[in-house]
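Incident log, structure service

09:12 report received: a user says their structure output differs between two submissions of the same chain.
09:20 pulled the input from the user's history:
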Amino acid sequence: MTKVEAIIRPDKMEDVKAGLDELGVKGMTFIHVMGAGKQRGRTEYYRGQEYVVNLLDKIKVETVVKDEVVEAVVETIIKFASTGEIGDGKIFVSPVSSAIRIRTGEQGDSALG
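09:34 re-ran on a clean worker, output below:
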């Protein structure tokens, strides 16, 4: 099992969700987060005053999938989250040693589906 975490633009959330649904990914978590990467924020104006927004709104997508579909999940996220501009986000892939479905006690891959 592998955990795939992606930090994406908020306006790409529905596209990524639809893409993962189409791929058959059953469990996904979407979390509103704020962060700063290479882009280091942006300058905005409010009532004629300039100010810098250091932390930008992002969405964190988390899912744990079977090892066989990790590449397809990563490719799907890239396909639906990419704009080609700075600030598109990052994807992190890490191994998961165990998963347990609380309701039934199922463990491993059977707890995912």
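09:41 both user submissions now match this output. Likely a transient worker issue. Closing.
09:42 reviewer note: The beta strands are 2-8, 29-35, 42-46, 49-53, 56-65, 90-95. The radius of gyration is 17 Å.
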